[in-house]
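Suppose you are handed a protein chain with no further information: no name, no annotation, nothing but its sequence. What can you learn? This example shows the usual starting point.
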Amino acid sequence: MQAWQIDAYGAPLHLAEVAEPVRGAHDVLVEVHAASLNVADLLAGKGAFKAFLPAEMPMTHGLDLAGVVTAVGSAVTRFAVGDEVYGCPDLARRGGTMTERVAVAEGDLARKPTSLTMTEAASLPLVSLTAWQVLVERAAVQPGQRVLVHAGSGGLGSIAVQLAEHLGAAVATTTGTSNVGWVRALGADLVVDHRTQDFTELVHDQDVVLDGLGGETLTRSFGVLRRGGQVIGVSGPPDRGFAVRMGLNPVLQVVMGALAFRTNRQAAKHGVRYSFLFVHASGAQLEQIAALVDDGTLRPVIDRVYPFAEADRAYEHLATGRAKGKIVVSMR
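A reasonable first move is to predict its three-dimensional structure. Written in structure tokens, the prediction is:
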């Protein structure tokens, strides 16, 4: 079978012949019908996660999938051959999804939302899990709270805006000029055009900021929070709490703490908190997300679909940073 791989960090992406996946007792073999792209793919390919998640080379790209179960391991109880599923395999296993077939732990999968096509379903797992784990699991957003989501027209932002609105929050977001009306239609109450407006002048007293941009945007976000509020970053810097949750060795825990020292100090000056979130796979959460999709609460946002043979072009598109929603690769 074929897969899109890199042979070393920073090496070009290429189509390769690979062995059939090995299925364990708790694994489900999935025939991949569609897979979507994430910025995390680009970061992983450059070695951004190698300190705590070193990849075996060659490495198959892809973190999201939707497909059909073709075989199950001896201990699998939740799925049967023929089930339509979607999911985000555990990042620690690095079993990339930009391939024809892949073995996935059953706990990382959920049944595909019945209202979606395979292409639509494949666009959701990583970004919807990230939004869920930031807003529901980590921040426990309550009705009436104020939430700022940066980059509301992106893959993560477009889902996070919808989820925050569903949770009853007053939602603010940032985006480019051409997307202002479109993002407002997703559920944002306040949309800041980052090309002509400064979010720090328009957004105040937030309870939670979801930051997927990092850098100056992260540090300036501390000033728009109420005292006691929090910024949850998904672009970094990683912090010591993340290292502890990942079970990293004490040396790496110290290193991660040092990386976030300046950011935590800036947060403390504003009387707020910062934490880093690295998404984890969860079929159970995807089941809840599927229910929200099927009742019309959440809808996927797709920028463009590429055929499997042109996945390299899809990644070039992703690297421009101009996609509105998700980029998806269709295998069938």
